[in-house]
Amino acid sequence: MMQGPVLCFVFLSLGLEEQVGAAPICAHGQAGCHSLSLPELFDRVIQHSARFHGLSSDLHTEFEQYLSSSRNQIGERKCHTSSIQTPNGKDIAQSLTREELTEVILKLLAAWGDPLSNLHNIMAHQQDFNTYSGRKALEMSDMVHQLKNGVQRVAERMQLLGMISNSLSRLSSTEVLEPPFPERFSTSDHDLLYCLRRDTDKVQSYLKILKCTILPEQTC
To answer: What share of the chain is helix, strand, coil (3-state, %, to 5)?
Structure first.
């Protein structure tokens, strides 16, 4: 006899394998699984985005302490994601179509995949940073891919329910934006971590707005 239920794949790579009673949870309702509702899927990506933003804020603060001269840095920030048209403010975000807002979220996440991987590689070989900071960079490098995959699963569910069109399929070929990366940290890297903190905050905010637009009956 099997010792406990077989775990199904929960929400792609979000690592959220849980059980409800005797039935494991899975995203697409396989036999013997508890299918996650759209509100549950939204809650999970929003929780994941909150963790992502928290880590980026922590790493930004740690880098400011490491390079105190950056605290006095002035002038316009240069973000490699600046070419992505993002709504400035809740009212503007709410005026976008569901497809447009979902596309903005996915573009922002796609643009940070390789930069975060490079960030971890640099920190891993630089003794100026403690191990804890390096682990945060590694966790964020994994998390951005997990979160992007999670948002894609939410989009797929919305498409199945007829809440958005199928126009998002073209995003798989979207050009990924990457910033130039040095071999060591410098004052210019303060911009990178500032931009990361800014963009993770945007992703979290846009996900909440998208949920409220799709599911107005939910508490927002």
So the answer is: 60, 5, 35
Cα 202 to Cα 13, 51, 120, 217, distances in angstroms: 22, 13, 22, 23
Token pair in block for residue 146 = 């997990």
Tokens for 71? 């605290």
C-alpha 26/C-alpha 170 separation (Å) is: 26
Q: Which residues pair with 19 in a beta bridge?
A: 24
What is d(CA 105, CA 11) in angstroms, rounded to the nearest whole number?
Answer: 18
The predicted-structure confidence for 75-85, as pLDDT tens digits, reads as follows 566 788 888 99
Tokens representing residue 205 in the block: 């905010």
Q: What are phi and psi of 25, to 5 degrees?
A: -95, 140
Task: Count Cβ neighbours within 10 Å for each residue of 181-198 and write b for 16 or more, e otherwise.
Answer: eeeebeeebbbbbbbbbb
**pLDDT per residue over 112-142, tens digit each?**
988 888 877 776 666 555 555 667 778 888 9
Residues 6+ apart with CB under 8 A from 102: 151, 155, 158, 164, 168, 210
Q: State the greatest distance between any 2 C-alpha atoms of the chain, in Å, as a whole number.
A: 67
Q: What angle do CA 59, 139, 37 make, to 5 degrees?
A: 115
